[in-house]
Request: fold
Amino acid sequence: MVRMKLLDKVAIITGSGNGIGREIAKAFAKEGAKVVVSDYIAEAGIETTKMINEAGLEAIFVQADVAKEEDIENLIAATVEKYGTVDILVNNAGISGGLADLNDISIEDWDQVMAVNLRAPFLASKIAFREMSKKGQGNIINIGSMASLAAGRGGLPYTVSKHGVLGFTRQLSFMLGSRGIRVNAILPGPIDTDMIKRVLAIPEHPVCMKIGASPAGRAGQPEEIAKLAVFLASEDSAFIHGAAYEVDGGYTIF
Reply:
């Protein structure tokens, strides 16, 4: 009999209405987790939940705008009300923020990217920790980016926020590891999601040209990120703390 790696674990995945978040939610459910799907767009989150439930697996949907502290509070509270605890938190929700020149980046645009990409993981982790600390165990996975490691074509606010996610992951791991909470990060490279479909459709785009020259020679699939998330959320990775996995087909090695 195949062992389910996340059997009866309660897992929250933010931004799981589509793309990487959706695939993580589906993968966690297949491994026996009770999944809390969360997204700003209700229709997308409900669709993910429906996919999981129709497969005979466990999931509920809680709508949340992670830029709003009260929504994050409600997300954690609804999870605890339904399932009694929080075992796993995947901070996946994120926005790109655009490619404006320095002079054209407004304070509002900057603050919005930071609120979703950096402040939200902080707040969600802080609030979820209240529940995790009761049992002295838990698991937090932050979804960063290849932009967590280098400058590039992601735009200034996005790159800064994703660098912050990496630092947040390492410092939080240092703070919480001795209290039974593991914290790690996944740094996806070019993944075939709605966020970069427009770029992938232009063969002469510099990103596409670099993808072609990378060891994998292709863009990644959301399912490939989900497989790593399952590993990091399970006891298979029990000795891994504060790590950041580059899942980019070799895009960032040159």
User: Anything to note?
Assistant: The longest helix spans residues 107-135. The first strand starts at residue 10 and ends at 13. Strands lie at 10-13, 34-39, 59-63, 88-91, 138-143, 181-188, 244-247. The chain is about 45% helix and 15% strand.
